[in-house]
Amino acid sequence: MSQTPISIESYVRTYDQLQEAIAGLSDEQLVWKASEKSWSVTEVLTHLADHNLVVSFRIREVLAGSEVRLPAFAQDEWVAGQRANAAKAADVLAAFRALLLYNSLLFQRLTAEDWNKSGVNFKGQTVTVEAIAQSFINHAHHHLGQIDRIKQAGESRWGQCQAAK
Predict the structure, then answer these.
(1) Range of 66's domain?
(2) Is 83 left (phi over 0), alpha (psi -120 to 50) or beta?
């Protein structure tokens, strides 16, 4: 297909960026939470996999010409309800990567007309396929920052745990 309005490489690269962000973290560090209401690194990864699943559905609804409002999802409840912190980060990332690759194949087949197709999101705003895909890339980058903040918050605690061993 011709050139796409989003960078498919940037979309797929979110997996590598997440892998880099968690490199060297122990299983304990991946599930550590600064507070009961905050997310662990594993929970952030789970949220991104969930979000990718929802985005995949939204894009397909728009491409199918559906006129239903594109769904929101209860991110905190999804993370808690699936006991995300009991998951292995590697398994979550494998699912995330599979969705990235599957969607990237779809993106390569889209025409300019497809990228400009639109639907109405849960806020009542009109969004295009292009905007949905780009928003996901931006959202992943936001959560990369969140992972960095979790790591920074945990560093002093993790250092104390190492010193006690």
Answers:
(1) 8-164
(2) left
